[in-house]
Amino acid sequence: MPYEEYIAVFRKAIGQVSALRVVTSVADILIVAYVIYRVLVLIRGTRAVSLIKGLAVLFVANLISQVLGLTTVYWLLQRTITMVFVALPIVFLPELRRALEQIGRGRLFSGGFDLFSPENPKEVIAEISRAAGILSREKVGALLVIERNTGLSDLIEAGIKLDAIVSGELLVNIFTPNTPMHDGAVVIRGGRVAAAGCYLPLTDNPSVSRRLGTRHRAALGISEQTDAVVVIVSEETGVISIASDGRLTRYLDEDSLRERLQKTLETRPRSGLRDWLKAQVRA
């Protein structure tokens, strides 16, 4: 083979390697950008935002002290930052647990599948909404937890097992005051009332309004730790609310609640990488 042909083959190989490097670099940037985006979504509205601001202040102060030659201040800040990084896993334990749960549910990089799959989902949603409307008009407090991907067996085991068909009359009777099961929450699994009298963990988010009572805090707590959808009826005002992914939507009526439940429960969540990239392209 002539010398010129060797040079041509070598240049072609270099071009292919360069093109491959460009592709891998672009993929690398997209993956990192997506991970950062998911982390920001995960910590939004939590106390982690304030903690990250505090870390930023420490790093800026450390840089300034180094530039100005403040040896003692720089030494103290260096030791402080080291201790902070050691304590980070403990400080961010709720957020880390939530991230690992999302990875386990397949919601960080894939859409996953929803376990809310009764034979007639619209009928179940209609009964839940009708019960919420009746309870709202009568100002009877209620908590309805709808299980999805994350299992709620621990809550069900601690409550009063029912395994009954979802109906508006049953839900209203459960939450009627001075009855054995009115205190606590109802857990709905697969279109059936699995248990009543279940107690939920309270949210530890400091940004939650002090005006919200225990029911709303419990609803936010379980929605932060799981992907459950929670319907709340306020005993004081009769206001209907819904909690999902650690967010609370208030001042719903029977019709708007039904529409929101249908949108949330009957559609596949758009949290996969492919769906996210499609959304960015459309934007």
Structure in words:
The protein has two domains: about 5-105, no CATH class; about 120-265, DNA integrity scanning protein, DisA, N-terminal domain (YojJ-like (1, 3-Layer(aba) Sandwich). The relative contact order is 0.11. The N and C termini lie far apart (about 55 Å). Mean pLDDT is about 80; it is low at about 110-115 and about 270-283. The protein has helices at about 5-45, 50-70, 70-90, 95-105, 120-140, 155-160, 170-175, 215-225, 255-265, 275-280, and strands at about 140-145, 160-165, 185-190, 190-200, 230-235, 240-245, 245-250. Helices cover about 55% and strands about 15% of the residues. The chain has a seven-stranded mixed beta sheet with strand order 2-4-3-1-5-6-7, with helices on both faces. It is an alpha+beta fold.
Estimate the helix proportion, in percent: 55-70%
Q: Low-confidence parts, pLDDT < 50 over ≥5 residues?
A: 108-114, 268-283
What characteristic shape results from the CA principal axes?
Answer: flat
What is the rounded Rg? 26 Å
Strand numbers in spatial order across the main sheet: 2-4-3-1-5-6-7
- CATH classification, class level of the largest domain: Alpha Beta
**Full CATH superfamily name of the largest domain:** DNA integrity scanning protein, DisA, N-terminal domain
Identify the CATH architecture of the largest domain: 3-Layer(aba) Sandwich
CATH topology term of the largest domain: YojJ-like (1
Q: Based on the structure, what is the oligomeric state of the protein chains?
A: single chain
**What is the makeup of the main sheet?**
7 strands, mixed
What count of domains describes the coordinates? 2
Overall pLDDT confidence: 81
- In terms of structural class, how would the helical and strand content be classed? alpha+beta
Number of strands: 7
Percent strand: 5-15%
Beginning-to-end CA distance, first to last residue: 53 Å
